Amino acid sequence: MASVPSAFHNGREPQSERAPALRLMQAFAQRTGLTGDAMPRRYLWTDAFAVCNFLALDEIDLAEALIEQVHAVLGRHRADDARRGWISGLDEETGAAHPTRGGLRIGKALPERAADEEVYDQDLEWERDGQYFHYLTRWMHALDQFARHTGQVETGRWGRELAQAAHGAFTYAPTPGAPKRMVWKASIDLSRPLVSAMGQHDALDGLITYLQLRTHRTSETDGPDLDAELHDMAAIVAGTNLLTDDPLGIGGLLADAYRLAQLLRDRPGDNALLGLVLGAAASGLNVYLRRRPFARPVEQRLAFRELGLAIGLQAVSRMWRVLERDTGDIATQPALRNSLDALIAQVPVARSLTGYWCDPARQAADSWRAHEDINAVMLATALVPSGYLDL
Description:
Number of helices: 18
Order of helices and strands: HHHHHEHHEEEEHHHHHHHHHHH
Mean pLDDT: 93
Distance between the termini: 22 Å
Shape: globular
Strand order of the largest sheet: 1-4-5
Strand content: under 5%
Helix content: 55-70%
Largest sheet: 3 strands, antiparallel
């Protein structure tokens, strides 16, 4: 990919937030081998947020370098795997042109569970490699953000090719003609499920991400149109319970709702799904906050989960502006208005959380250091959320 100047200048955060975010991201780049001489250490979820952060900070060269490194590392088989080359099975030249056609590895420390390994250890599975659908949707989003902000349409095509590959591997019909379901984790080569349970918000993430990718598709040479995939995901979402009291999950719902509102600018308030997502987020947040989670000592708190909530809460005020501008009086939609009112009241929690985790003493805690990369990157996202949230 050739580097070009960023076209992204909207929603610029103040320097007081950009400066610490830039320090966090520069340290992350050095620590994980994006810059400097360290061996590259890539992890798809964290890297997806990192691409968006670099866009928000106008570090376009670093965003581009990270995309290339993720594809070179996570798009290929592990060094400790007998298999070699692109996980898609494509030859070197074709694989380089289509690096996402086989999906992308998670980047976990341990190899995936072997096909003949019948004993399933749930705790150990968390540390094993493979592919997660919800990580892949984050990477699709990052590729689309980069494509729009730089004009590099090739990157958007990679996102749509990834969507098509992931959808084919993660969705299935339990019986002929039955509604489709999803697996939560698949093998590195997408040939078999590793965890057959369905992720609660995977279908919602897929539906909105596919819509985003299709909306930004400009021509038939821009990759698949994803119409069939959108149809499948809409049916799966219709049978899904979205309610969660997990802070990272609530933050994800709020970010999804804001993306949906932006994608449906003409009449976003008329979309039934938007009301359902906001209602689930508002209810879940109420349950979560009643537990007084922020009163716990730092050793009992997970920064990246709380920062996921902080990112989502910053989508709420942005969403309010979209709804007010594009639909006029949202008071005519009482359920939507009630959910937004409840969420708006909690927006200050976001600043409280970023302030808490910006404290060097908290970053010295074992609970921070155990997940330093993901914590640092998501704190940077919470400080400069425009690269991740604004389409």
